[in-house]
Design goal:
- The radius of gyration is 24 Å and the shape is globular.
- It contains 22 helices and 23 strands.
- Among the domains are: 246 residues, Glycosidases (TIM Barrel, Alpha-Beta Barrel); 71 residues, Oligo-1,6-glucosidase, domain 2 (Alpha-Beta Complex); 72 residues, Immunoglobulin-like, CATH 2.60.40.
- A hairpin with a 4-residue loop joins strand 8 and strand 9.
- The chain is an alpha/beta fold and 610 residues long.
- Helix 14 packs across helix 17.
- The protein starts with a helix and ends with a strand.
- The longest helix has 23 residues.
- It has an 8-stranded parallel β-barrel with strand order 1-2-5-11-12-13-14-17. The protein has a 6-stranded antiparallel β-sheet with strand order 18-19-20-23-21-22. A 3-stranded antiparallel β-sheet has the order 7-9-8, with helices on one face.
- The structure holds alpha-D-glucopyranose.
- Alpha-D-glucopyranose binds next to loops.
């Protein structure tokens, strides 16, 4: 079959729906232009990628296997530049990783980059990191080694240094129309009434006054990140083209950044509007037409009811994968309270969702931890109020609470709402940094156990576990960012420090905590890949342990059954479970009954029924 036929066939398959959605948002006359651009991007796609597309099309569940392990990292922090990453792929593979998320690496102005999330040129790699050719070469090598590469597509906004923004600033109406420009604060003022703030302290408000232009521009995130106006078909066409340029460099997974925000409407919160779903659905179809091997990962940092719609429906899917964000936040609530009740409830909610949904599970990422918890439930069941509870969590995790070794820092501490979010690496939040500082060996050993246990808990969940680079060797906070004026304002840099290759070497040294953590995670990944009970299709449910600090997660698939136990308390505890049969702890090899199981402080067990 000739190649063009593939494209035409796939286009024909989606044409009706694609055109229908397109015409709901845009005048019909642009549609054939869009199709022309899709075809051009298809033709330009290299043969090896088309081959990979075909392989994945014939195995559409390729990303749902239990041997998938992700890692996310900053190129510069890990290895300086893209060529450096390529040289270090053996380490990434040693970590068992086959899904690599490189944080934003496109051209972005230093000091006004929001960690790369303010893109000045979607067709250019940040010069200090390399070139588009380096990116294409890296993905090619990754594919040969069986690794997929994920990259952000920052579609909600551009940097103020983007050519469109510059031309808009110079007064060109055509380019102003790609953003939201206003002569006075009249309309912005109306938006502000219903549209919440993302960065209330580091970037208050949703608009920025441009002194030279004497106009307001919409800036939901930082003032230098100008929101794109997706009502304008040119924006949709050009941004779609930018996306396909990235997939043509061999990017396998597109993380659609801040996607709930891409459509704005007066009188609304400007979040999760129906048009957002139309656009995501169109992007899904466009990828299926041009590059069917590519996956969409939606970044929806919201409560479950708002996250799940981004999967779309079985007939009309949107994202392939989404972050399990509420579970992540609830994990840290559990770390701070030592009470698993809310986590159990949250896992129950996720476990009732269709097995086709793929969640990315993670402990930490480049962003802060926002306290998006189920406060109605906490209030009703635990008599906890939102604001004081957040204060408790923040106090505990910043080490202010007596007995806490955690070393987090606040993020966007908003005195008006009493809201503050939190930053820090897994190891520092688990108390390793504090314990080492004080030279308390016992506390350090407990912290190491805690780090291992949390990874064991992450790996027991269905979906793709994603390690935050550095966590596999217990990397501590980077306090140096305070001295860098370009970073000091944004405490997320606390957990964006350079990867320490010196410390990583210690993973080979007997008795080091690096080795203990590294080996443990690796071993759990191997077990996870070996046992079908970890497959996405497995039945998963939590069970009561009659100890507030102990979480029990059961999984079954065919004739395998796993009972996993996690102790969130700093003391030895007993899980008062009563499961039939004899079990073997996959980690220690011990045999035991599924009854009254002892767990050391912050200990865990993965019990497989014999
Ligand atoms: C996403 C990113 C975050 C960034 C924001 C704006 O939420 O994860 O780091 O600040 O988008 O692009």
């Amino acid at each position: 079959m000739s190649k063009a036929v593939d494209f035409e066939e796939r286009l024909a398959r989606h044409l009706d729906e694609l055109k229908w959605l397109y015409c709901e948002l845009y005048p019909e006359d642009g549609f054939s232009y869009l199709c022309g651009r899709l075809k051009a991007r298809y033709e330009e796609r290299r043969a090896s990628l088309k081959k990979l597309d075909a392989v994945r099309e014939s195995d559409p569940d390729w990303y749902k296997r239990n041997d998938m392990v992700g890692m996310m990292m900053y190129t510069e922090a890990f290895a300086g530049n893209l060529k450096g990453v390529e040289k270090r792929l053996s380490y990434i593979q040693e970590c068992g990783v086959n899904y690599l998320h490189l944080m934003p690496l496109l051209d972005s102005p230093e000091g006004k980059s929001d960690g790369g999330y303010a893109v000045a040129d979607f067709g250019k790699v940040r010069p200090d990191l390399g070139t588009m050719e380096d990116l294409a070469a890296l993905t090619e090598t990754c594919h040969k080694k069986g690794l997929s590469v994920c990259l952000d597509f920052v579609m909600n906004h551009t940097s103020e240094e983007h050519e469109w923004a510059k031309r808009a600033r110079a007064g060109e109406k055509e380019f102003q129309d790609r953003y939201f420009f206003f002569d006075s604060f009249e309309i912005p003022g109306q938006y502000e009434k219903t549209c919440p703030q993302v960065f209330p302290t580091t970037a208050p408000g949703n608009f920025t006054w441009l002194e030279d232009e004497k106009k307001f521009v919409m800036t939901t995130f930082y003032p230098y990140q100008w929101d794109l106006n997706y009502r304008n078909p040119v924006v949709f066409h050009d941004m779609t083209d930018c996306l396909l340029n990235l997939t043509n460099q061999g990017v396998d997974i597109i993380r659609i950044d801040a996607v709930p925000y891409i459509w704005k409407e007066l009188g609304t919160t400007c979040r999760n509007l129906p048009q957002v779903h139309s656009i995501v659905r169109m992007l899904r179809m466009i990828c299926e037409i041009v590059c069917p091997g590519v996956l969409l990962l939606g970044e929806v940092v919201m409560e479950p009811v708002k996250v799940v719609p981004y999967f779309g429906t079985v007939e009309k899917p949107e994202c392939h994968m989404l972050y399990n964000v509420t579970t992540m936040a609830t994990t840290w609530h559990t770390v701070a309270t030592g009470d698993v009740a809310l986590l159990k409830r949250q896992m129950d909610i996720v476990n009732t969702l269709p097995k086709e949904y793929v969640f990315l599970n993670y402990l930490r990422c480049h962003d802060d931890i926002g306290w998006g918890l189920d406060y109605d439930w906490l209030n009703k069941e635990k008599d906890m109020e939102e604001v004081p509870h957040k204060k408790y969590l923040n106090d505990y995790l910043t080490g202010k609470w007596p007995g806490s070794y955690a070393r987090g820092e606040l993020y966007n501490d908003d005195s008006a709402s009493g809201d503050a979010r939190l930053c820090g690496t897994t190891a520092s939040l688990c108390g390793l940094e504090g314990a080492l500082e004080e030279g308390n060996e016992e506390a350090a050993a407990r912290a190491v156990r805690f780090i291992k246990m949390l990874h064991g808990y992450m790996l027991v969940q269905s979906g793709i576990p994603v390690i935050y680079s550095g966590d596999e060797i217990g990397q501590l906070n980077d306090n140096e960012y305070h001295k860098d004026p370009k970073k000091a304002e944004d405490s997320r840099y606390l957990h964006r420090g350079s990867f320490s290759w010196e410390k990583a070497e210690l993973r080979k040294e007997e008795g080091s905590y690096q080795k203990e953590i590294f080996d443990c995670i690796r071993r759990m990944e191997v077990l996870r890949a070996m046992h079908p009970v970890f497959l996405n299709q497995a039945a998963v449910w939590t069970a009561d342990t009659y100890d507030a600090a102990v979480l029990c997660v059961n999984r079954t698939f065919e004739d395998e059954k796993l009972t996993a136990l996690f102790n969130f308390s700093g003391e030895e505890r007993t899980a008062w479970i009563n499961e039939d049969g004899m079990y073997v702890d996959l980690m220690s090899g011990e045999r035991m009954e599924g009854k009254e199981v002892q767990l050391p402080a912050y200990g865990m067990r993965w019990l497989l029924r014999e």
